[in-house]
Design goal:
The protein has 276 residues and is α+β, with helices and mostly antiparallel strands. It is built from five helices and 13 strands. About 4% of the residues have low confidence. It has two domains: 138 residues, Roll (Chitinase A, domain 3), CATH 3.10.50.40; 125 residues, Roll (Chitinase A, domain 3), CATH 3.10.50.40. Helix content is 16%, strand content 31%. The strands form two sheets. Strands 7, 8, 9, 10, 11, 12 and 13 form a seven-stranded antiparallel sheet that branches. A six-stranded antiparallel sheet has the order 1-2-5-6-3-4. Keywords: Isomerase, Rotamase.
């Protein structure tokens, strides 16, 4: 990886630019892209914005929106083959924070997909490119969408934790894992019930971020993270176990209290004291 700066949003570069003459490269860029497609025998699709994209593999996972966080492995180069940036391990970003050609183009792929983005200057850097990219340049990116909102990497992390700690866990359709040590013999809550739960919350590295005393905490299951709303319903009153919650069922892209980083898997040892 070089520096992953070339795909950041244009505003980061235009703020320090001079009063460059504004040139419309749209027609020139479109001709250049079409010539590149023909020379390289690509099966490309053109969007209404003027972006061209090639889908080599659609992928089978989630399809991102422009507000999602993604991790993308890529190589960026010009139509003459000059490589200006690349990341084989993957670049992690929210799609709203990158150039328009990425914000739009990545949404045409599902998680696990790969292909090309052929981006005209008006969807990249236009008249104000960063050092190393010519004014009005067409940018080409070979991309692989590694994950959307951490789902794939979270699942691998949870599976590894389960194996390392010899847990017998079940996985739900949502991606939540749970371990039932004791099912309990009282009422089984629904997702709209009030419950009292004693718990300890920690990360897969063992960092403790929250816990209650033995008396627990009372709340309605509609007022907590989705992993709890679903997970507590697998227990009956008096039951105990562990919830292993991926980020999309917890805090997603948000950081919490300086301890829970964006994309964190959360673990909770829980005791369902009462359903009320």
């Amino acid at each position: 990886m070089k520096n992953a700066l070339f795909i950041l949003a244009l505003v980061l570069f235009t703020s320090c630019s001079k009063d460059n003459d504004t040139i419309d490269f749209t027609a020139q860029n479109d001709n250049e892209i079409q010539a590149y497609i023909a020379t390289n025998n690509l099966d490309a699709i053109k969007s209404n914005s003027g972006l061209y994209y090639v889908i080599d593999e659609q992928g089978t996972g989630d399809k991102p929106t422009q507000t999602d966080r993604v991790k993308v492995a890529y190589k960026g180069y010009l139509t003459n083959g000059f490589v200006f940036d690349e990341s084989t391990s993957g670049f992690d970003t929210i799609l709203q924070l990158v150039i328009a050609g990425w914000s739009e183009g990545i949404t045409y792929f599902n998680e696990g997909g790969r292909g090309k983005l052929l981006i005209p200057a008006h969807l990249a850097y236009g008249n104000n490119p960063p050092t190393g990219i010519p004014v009005g340049a067409v940018l080409i990116f070979d991309i692989e969408l590694i994950y959307v909102n951490y789902a794939t990497e979270n699942d691998k992390e949870i599976v590894a934790y389960i194996a390392d700690n010899n847990l017998t866990a079940q996985k739900s359709d949502s991606g939540l894992y749970y371990v039932i040590d004791e099912l309990g013999d009282g009422d089984q809550p629904t997702e709209t019930d009030n419950v009292t739960v004693a718990y300890k919350g920690y990360l897969t590295n063992g960092t403790l971020f929250d816990e209650t005393n033995e008396e627990g905490l009372s709340f309605n299951l509609q007022q907590v993270i989705t992993g709890w709303t679903e997970g507590i319903t697998y227990f009956k009153e008096g039951g105990s176990g562990t919830l292993l919650i991926p980020a999309h069922l917890a805090y997603g892209n948000n950081s919490v209290s300086g301890i829970i980083a964006p994309g964190s898997v959360l673990l909770f040892d829980i005791n369902l004291i009462s359903v009320n």
